[in-house]
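If you are new to this repository, start here. Below is one unmodified record pulled from the training split, so you can see the exact layout before writing a loader.
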Amino acid sequence: MEGYLVITYVLQLTGALLFGVLVYNVIVQLTMSPLRHIPGPLLARLSKRYYELISATGRMGLNGRQNAHKYGDIYVCQPETVSISDPADIRTVLSTPAITKHPYYKLLRFTGRDSIMSTFESEMVSKKRRTFGPYMTTSYVSKMESLIMEHGIEAVIEQWDKELSASKMGACKVNYCHTFNLCMFNQVSRLVFGQEIQALKNIDSQQKLEWITASTTFISMRALFQLLPRPLFYLFTRPWEHMYNQIAEHVAVSIKERKQLLSSIKLSGGKKPADLLQALMDCEDPESKVRLNAEQIHAEALLLLIGGIDPTAFTLTWTIHLLTLYPECYRRAVSEIRTAFSSKSSEILSYNQVKSTLPYLEACILESLRLVPVPSVQIPRKVPPEGTVIKGHFIPGGTAIFINTWGSHTAEKYWADPFKFDPMRFLDKDPKLNRQRRHSIFTFGYGNRICMGKHLAWVNLMTILANILRNYNISLPEGYSRRGPNVIDPQTGHPRLMDMTMFITNKPKYPDKDCQVVISKAR
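And here is the target side for that same chain:
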């Protein structure tokens, strides 16, 4: 009996202490915190676990959008952390050298070694950009355009034509989400490793793509979901980690094979391969003349493989999805393309051709990047020691600033009717307004924090969509009723988007159900 009383007393005392700590924390956050005058959810002020729980549900982007609409252009989203969504503030933060990447980025280390993504020390970031920058320029990407086309849109056309040829009806169903992911895996494998994998045909390649998809989930969970005790966390994420290790080993084997090839080339006097892996092995910092070591090459190559697929593949996916929801936009895009380029021609349209003649198609892509930005995380920056001022609030040094892309892209004060897919908002008669709106799309970053692969992504986005819409008629399958022009979202008053999950990238939740279309050859 005495033991029972002792246990009861200990539990009561523990509960009282925990309650006291909670009350004290609430009082401190509401009366003493330097961020106390900034609005935000109470739970977010008390613990970072609030944001981790939201992240674990795969709805972090949507949560950022909802909170921005509720609390405004700046709100507290974690202790010592604010989220901002005013485009002008975002441009200022991303173009201010003193506001650096937050140490949070170390959680995105792929192999225990820093890549250009996970590096957060300013000097190291600048060094890596100097080292890799020349291989992501417009001129360098232009030199690779024939390879980009061969392993991008040409592979898609070959596969879709093959499926159409096998159909007796002159039309067939395709899954555009799977097509675009395999296409980008196909292309990245060639551009990075020089490998001809023919991913759209090869079952083994499709398995490796599953490894890559699982890897992005694993990295996201490792970075964002630290709520569980470590042993339980590793047990929970073990299936994803296994597939992540498989793709990491694939990269290691590719590097080993390249070194063996270079040794034989050195003896025979042959020519080195021209791809990004070779660029990583050959590049050096123009100032220090230091080259990457083996671990650094592996980390960067793995980043190129994992990071080079999802952003482009899912932007293509969301753009096609939106065009099926808005038939008038689809018809206008098709009319623009087929008026400029005959659908009877078998010529593959180049980037220069489509970039200079298809403004409406480009606007469709911009509007897709706005309405459904593929990066699902709020990008963190660190305030310098002297602090900064945002929206009249002093933000002390060391505070994290989250760039709320989802909130910024759908704020009604900056975008009229923000939940409507309206490409014409980027084709206003006022060129100054058009530039301002383009500079308010932060999917690829901004200023000196711009994504280094942006130009490569745009080459793919423009050429793949232009050639598909010229060559094929696209429609939703008969009887499909999950989504469509007449399936209205009661919260927005516009066609309802397909369900999505948000682990680093924003992707369809049910691609097998929602990413099917019927294609036929354009006459």
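Two things worth knowing about this chain: Residues 33-521 form a domain with the Cytochrome p450 fold (CATH 1.10.630.10). The first strand starts at residue 74 and ends at 78.
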